[in-house]
Amino acid sequence: MIRVTAQAFDSAAETAAFRDRVPQAGAIVTFLGQVRGRGPQGDIAAMTLEHYPGMTERALETIEAEARRRWPLDEVIIIHRYGRLEPGEPIVFVATASPHRRAAYEANEFLVDWLKTRAPFWKKEEGQFGARWVDAKADDDDAAARWE
Amino acid sequence: MTILYFAWLKERVGTGEEQLPLPAGVTTVGDLIEHLKARSPELEAVFGADARVLTAVNQDMATPDTPVTDSDEVAFFPPMTGG
Questions:
Q1: Taking CA atoms, what residue in A is nearest to B78?
Q2: Is domain B2-77 annotated with CATH 3.10.20.30?
Q3: Domains of chain A and CATH, by start
Q4: Do A120 and B79 touch (CB under 8 A)?
Q5: Is B79–A33 a contact, with Cβ atoms under 8 angstroms apart?
Q6: Cβ–Cβ below 8 Å for B77 and A117
Q7: Which chain A residue's Cα is nearest to B4?
Q8: Which residues of B touch A (CB under 8 A)?
Q9: How many angstroms from the chain centroid is the CA of residue B70?
């Protein structure tokens, strides 16, 4: 399940709702990514996430389908924000449910690694340093490549 | 055709979307990029040698060899930085 939204979300409420949908699952892994407060150039006042409506959802659906093909998953949710966010606000929430923990862990890590490099989102950070588009990191490419 | 620009490309070009009749002689993404580069210094800079620009045609990732037609939506953007 994919949700791309401008609305803030509550990760605790999302976790509870997710658990309600998979009472039979033996293992649930959740990942929460939030806006960082410091970057390489100093304190961050806010971050704006741009996306490509339509393609972003399709890319996330493709990534979810790939995870379901690779691991025995009972349920998957990916929630991703766009718009202007402040430090500490949730950006992305990924939950995976499986009969066993290893599949839930691995699938979750896979989903985060691939969405970082394959879903069309772009981050711009603002602070006293001005405003700058965040560069794609080679580390993220490496993390995504190890699943290929 | 519809051309979309995202993130710093949109700022540099000055617009996020433009409509363009398929230019004569353009049959692929690579042709289209060469055509756009000749249109303005901003576009030439965006597609310049040191910039890494990705392309999608009709919301699927594309390469310079991907064909384009007049009814396509072609998007240009930097490497993704979500998550």
A1: A122
A2: yes
A3: 2-145 (3.90.1170.40)
A4: no
A5: no
A6: no
A7: A52
A8: 4, 6-8, 56, 59, 75, 77-83
A9: 14
pLDDT score of B48: 86
With a cut of 80, say whether residue B50 has pLDDT above it. no
Report the complex ipTM.
Answer: 0.93
Q: Are A75 and A107 in contact (CB under 8 A)?
A: no
Contact at CB, A133 and B78, closer than 8 angstroms: yes
| Average confidence score pLDDT of chain A | 96
* Shortest distance, CA A65 to any CA of chain B (angstroms): 16
Q: Are strands A75-81 and A2-5 parallel, antiparallel or unpaired?
A: parallel
All structural domains of chain B with their residue ranges: 2-77
Encoded tokens for B34: 């060469």
pLDDT (tens digit, 9 = 90+) per residue, A82-138?
999 999 999 999 999 999 999 999 999 999 999 999 999 999 999 999 999 998 888
Contact B82 A119 (CB under 8 A): yes
| CA pair distance A95, A4, nearest whole angstrom | 15
Instruction: In whole angstroms, give the CA distance from residue A104 to residue A77.
Output: 12
- The burial of B46, by beta-carbon neighbours within 10 Å (0-12 exposed, 13-18 middle, 19 or more buried), is given as buried
Q: What is the pLDDT of residue A39?
A: 86
Per-residue confidence (pLDDT) for residue B52, from 0 to 100: 86
